[in-house]
Design goal:
The longest helix is centred in the middle third of the chain and has 26 residues, at 62-87. The chain starts with a strand and ends with a helix. It is built from 8 helices and 5 strands; from the N terminus they run E-H-E-H-H-E-H-H-E-H-H-E-H. It is of the alpha/beta class and 210 residues long. The chain has one domain (4-206): P-loop containing nucleotide triphosphate hydrolases (Rossmann fold). The structure holds thymidine-5'-phosphate.
């Protein structure tokens, strides 16, 4: 596929939205066509699924939760991301299947390989060209959320050990696929993180090593 698919991953409060909007602004200013998406909620159907999965009151069984995320993902990839990549556009997306492996696999304690396989089936095997993992101690992420939120969604409201497992799972995933992942310390200043991301994305765009 001709385009470039870039995803951001990390715990809640790790700075993904800040960094993705810096990247999107820069690429757009350079005259590139950038499609921005997020999971859950990148499409109209996704917005409805996001509401259910993050804000529905009451219990959702872990496998049901994993399948709702996978359904959102299937629709997002089929209707938004794949067509954009086929046109040669750049897609910058907040969260993708690594989130399911980390949150539903390690967090909810489902089998990580099964969770990944369900997602891979949902997206017909599409993997990002680059996944930027903003790694941050979950307590710092939590403090950042505390500053900006009055209410937590179903996942954010999970306990510390859940978020610690999510962080470890992300680091394991990154170690397994060092070519796809760029792991950055989410505690560094915003500008310095943005600089590292810029270097890696530019090297992908020019085909030169960073
Ligand atoms: P966010 O859009 O604010 O990051 O919120 C999405 C929440 O959903 C976040 O807590 C991570 C969680 N999540 C999963 O548990 N599994 C997934 O596959 C995805 C995409 C997100």
């Amino acid at each position: 596929m001709a385009g470039l698919f870039i995803t951001f991953e990390g715990g809640d409060g790790s700075g993904k939205s800040t960094q993705s909007s810096i990247l999107v602004d820069r690429l757009t200013n350079e005259g590139r066509t950038v499609i921005v998406s997020r999971e859950p909620g990148g499409t109209e159907l996704g917005v409805e699924l996001r509401e259910i999965i993050l804000h529905r009151r009451g219990y959702i069984a872990p496998r049901a939760e994993a399948l709702i995320y996978a359904a959102d993902r299937a629709h997002n990839i089929a209707t938004l991301v794949r067509p954009a990549l086929e046109r040669g556009d750049i897609v910058v997306q907040d969260r993708y299947l690594d989130s399911s492996v980390a949150y539903q696999g390690a967090g909810r304690v489902l089998n990580p390989k099964e969770v990944r396989d369900v997602s891979l089936w949902a997206v017909e095997g599409l993997l990002p060209d680059l996944t930027i993992l903003l790694d941050l101690d979950e307590a710092i992420g939590r403090e950042r959320l505390d500053d900006s939120r009055t209410k937590y969604d179903r996942l954010e409201a999970e306990k510390r050990d859940f978020h610690a497992r999510v962080r470890d799972a992300y680091l394991t995933l990154a170690a397994e696929e060092p070519g796809r992942f760029l792991v950055l310390d989410g505690a560094l200043p915003v500008e310095s993180i943005a600089e590292s991301i810029r270097g890696r994305v530019d090297s992908l765009l020019t085909g030169q090593p960073s």
